[in-house]
Write a structure and sequence with these properties.
29% helix; alpha+beta; globular; single chain; 13-stranded mixed sheet; Aminopeptidase
Length: 276
């Protein structure tokens, strides 16, 4: 495979099957539906070798910020500059937005060269959920809570993720922790990869986050569940004790301006490593 002969095209629905084959080669758990979910939110590019997908990348805009994700290069041509070409396209598409991503150790040199800097460690917890009692103060969300959920998410992230919230409403089930005059936290669960993923989870503190997660896990005993969390937020040991073992993770990085977020809530579990 000669990198010179590779062409770059806009990522369209016709490329989903090829992208799925590439992510399976990389050992990623994504289903075709998971790729389509991301494509609905993103502008993407594919690298093609005689119409076969050999590289992918997506840029997901969230207002002034963006997520760079699904950066995959065929194993046969890694180390020949294709990843850098795709990254530059995604960064150009992002314009002046602050860009964030979750990197592997292998990707760190490229991302650092492009101006990204580490700011958090992400731990991936997954496994067969053990029994846990549902807390009595968490309830399933109704459509009346949609605006409160979106507002709380924006407070926690500093990003306009209304597009993500709208897409999650089609695929996920939400629970909320009621608070004074509104909600104090929320969690979402949806099908992803080998089972279910819980995230985002936004809460005031680790205690509230555990209650939201416990509510979701109480209905999933014996099922495969995944949670991606920031290592520094104190949920890792608790998740491991519930059968969701630490299976690795990544390095959260950002490039560009980083406005200080003054918020009483934090993101304790990600929607996915791709989306934050």
């Amino acid at each position: 495979m000669n990198p010179v002969d590779i062409t770059i095209a806009d990522f369209g629905p016709e490329h989903l099957e090829g992208a799925l084959a590439l992510s399976r080669q990389a050992g990623w758990p994504h289903r075709l539906e998971d790729w389509a979910f991301l494509l609905n939110l993103s502008r993407g590019f594919v690298a093609l070798d005689d119409n076969r997908v050999v590289g992918t990348i997506m840029m997901t805009p969230f207002g002034h910020a963006a997520r760079i994700n699904m950066v995959i290069v065929d194993a046969a041509i890694r180390g020949k500059g294709l990843g850098g070409r795709l990254m530059q396209l995604a960064l150009d598409e992002a314009g002046g937005r602050e860009c964030q991503l979750v990197a592997t150790e292998d990707g760190l040199p490229l991302y650092r060269k492009l101006g990204f800097r580490e700011f958090s460690i992400i731990r991936q917890h997954q496994g067969t959920a053990l029994p846990i009692e549902a807390p009595g103060d968490v309830i399933w969300a109704t459509s009346d809570a949609d605006k409160d959920i979106a507002a709380l998410d924006r407070e926690a992230t500093g990003m306009d993720r209304r597009s993500l919230m709208a897409e999650l409403q089609k695929h996920a089930i939400f629970a909320v922790l009621p608070g004074d005059g509104g909600i104090a936290g929320y969690a979402a669960i949806r099908r992803f990869g080998r089972g279910d993923v819980i995230g985002p989870v936004v809460a005031r503190d680790a205690s509230d986050a555990r209650r939201l997660l416990a509510f979701m896990l109480a209905g999933r005993t014996g099922s495969f569940v995944r949670v991606d969390t920031h290592q520094a937020l104190g949920l890792c040991d608790w998740l491991s004790g519930l059968g969701l073992k630490d299976v690795g993770g990544g390095i959260a990085m950002r490039r560009g301006e980083n406005p200080q977020i003054k918020s009483s809530v934090s993101v304790f579990a990600l929607a996915s490593q791709a989306l934050g």
